[in-house]
Amino acid sequence: MSGAYRALTFDGDGTLWNFESAMSLALEDAARLLRASGIGRPDGPVTARWLREVRDAVARLDAYRGQSMEKIRLASFEAALTHCGHADPKLARDVYDVYMRARWGRLHAYDDVPGSLAALRSRYRLTLVTNGNTHPHRVGLDGLFETVVVAAECGLHKPDPEIYRFTVDRLRLDAYEVLHVGDDPVEDVIAGRRAGLDTAWINRDGREWTHDETPSMAVADLRELVLRLTGQ
């Protein structure tokens, strides 16, 4: 199977770098700043969990469909302050700046990623396909990807299989020549398979697979992926 692949596409957040932990810690910093500024919700304190819920609600609004992650995040802090009865665009921008500095400062590639990508790059064309806003240079992975497909830039978002068809077309390959690698069962594995790609599920924390559609392979990290694909 691996001999037929000419390219590998990779998800970013949770697959190549620690997006979830970096985001959670950055939201804690943002919540602390708001509490220190005397901001509170009518029904309780400002928490990182609540800020995440506000962000998700803003992202679902038609007005923010297709907008960049940065615009959505700033709008979510503005919405949070409005909910707290303290609409203040300057404070929202200050909180946003604290959040972004903390997020970028804590974001890093997993230990297995740089060397594994370098090994795979010697055999395959590598592409990043992401719904997020992290470009490879942010985590020290610049120069390893032939191309980067960002949902907000191409107008297609996972789990829409069209983002994978778009990527395959950009690579000028057929779907059977591409293996997609990602950690999300729906956005990566199922959507990739529905676009006609083989898929590799990165399962870093030992989760159980609970869906009817299954990945072509499941691996614990990229080192195991290299071993499965190259035997080395």
UniProtKB/TrEMBL annotation:
Its cofactor is Mg(2+). Pfam families: Hydrolase. One of its GO terms (molecular function) is phosphatase activity. One of its GO terms (biological process) is small molecule metabolic process. It comes from the Bacteria. InterPro entries: HAD-like_hydrolase, HAD-like_sf, HAD-SF_hydro_IA, HAD_sf. Keywords: Hydrolase, Magnesium, Metal-binding. This is HAD family hydrolase. It comes from Microbispora hainanensis.
